[in-house]
Amino acid sequence: MTDDRIAICPECRSDQVTSEHHQAFLINTGEHYCHTMKTQDADSPSKCLECKWEGERKNLLLIDDPKAKKKEAKERAQYERLKAKFEAQP
Ligand SMILES: [Zn+2]
Fold this sequence. Notes:
Elements: E1 5-8, E2 17-19, E3 22-25, E4 32-37, E5 45-48, E6 54-56, E7 61-64, H1 66-88
Antiparallel strand pairs: 1-7, 2-5, 3-4, 5-6
Bound molecules: zinc ion (ZN).
């Protein structure tokens, strides 16, 4: 995921959720055929490791990543401190 959101289980709100990647191979040669399902596909089978919920990726809830928020707050505080320091200079 490229934004600051994380996917969580729609049942128990756990972030311990999985998404599946399916790959097809030619049986007789063992040659890779194609990626029939990618983890980012909306209909990729998803599971929750906590409560055993099963569904599709699109059913997962997206919430703001609490870690990203914390990082942002820390960076902002750092910036405010530097700014205050700079402004205090004669
Ligand atoms: Zn769950």
